[in-house]
Amino acid sequence: MKLTTILILFFLSYSATAQIDQQQAYVKGYINDHIKSLGIESIDSTTNIKVYRIWTDYQLVHLEQKADSTFNGLLVNFVTKRSGTPKKPKEELIIHSIKIPDSSVMHLLDSFYEFNIETLKDSHELENYPQGLDGNTFVFEVANANSYRIYSYWEPLNDRYQNKELPEIISVRGILKTLISTISPPKHFAWFLDKLPKGSYRYGGINMVKF
Q1: CA–CA dist 196, 152 (Å, integer)
Q2: Signal peptide position in this chain (predicted)?
Q3: N- or C-end of the chain: fewer Cβ atoms within 10 A?
Q4: Which of these, 208, 185, 210, lies nearest to 195 by C-alpha position?
């Protein structure tokens, strides 16, 4: 089930006050499942100076400034390969990681900070912010040795759904457009898909068969 579907179903079940806290907790559970599947560490108890993560249903960008002031960055692509029979289906997570150059990590950390990544509200705290069952949801994790935050935005780049004058949308778009112009995650994901062997795959809400 896609993250957006989970969020909407949960959204309908709680009062306005509970929605915010419970939504963030639910997103955190979703991210924890990905963390376990990818075999990476959670950042909610990091000792590093700064860690930013941006998630979609099939990609992770991890940026950090370590306690010794060195930098590290990874772009992680992942899809689920489906095989077996209808009675005995099998699923395998296919993962491909790319190291992000230190200079790009430094640039992105600085740029994202300028776009208020550390203080942005969760989209569920914004009045009349639309939520959908399809499309792209971006989840942001922000952590340092003293704090941890998680929040999400559905389809922030889509003018059809979003008010481009909203300060939070301006910031999120600035973050994502800087990310795309610096390391081009969509290009790397397309390359990753192209290199997959023949088979049946799933990522996000998309089913793909390669012949």
Answers
A1: 29
A2: 1-18
A3: C
A4: 210
Tokens standing for residue 106: 């430094």
| Contact between residue 23 and residue 153 where contact means Cβ atoms under 8 Å apart | no
Q: Which residues contact 211 (CB under 8 A, 6 or more apart)?
A: 198
Query: Would the CA dihedral through 26, 30, 31, 33 be positive or negative?
Result: positive
Q: How confident is the model at residue 11 (pLDDT cuts 50, 70, 90)?
A: very low
The two tokens of residue 133 are 């069952």
Domain boundaries, the chain: 3-210
**pTM (2 decimals)?**
0.88
Q: What is the dihedral of CA 162, 166, 170, 176, to 10 degrees?
A: -40
Nearest one of 73, 69, 76, 77 to 100, comparing CA atoms: 73
Q: How far is CA 7 from CA 55, 149, 161, in A?
A: 15, 17, 17
CB 139 within 8 A of CB 6: no
Kind and range of the H or E run holding 178? helix 167-183
Residue 24 burial (CB count, 10 A): 18
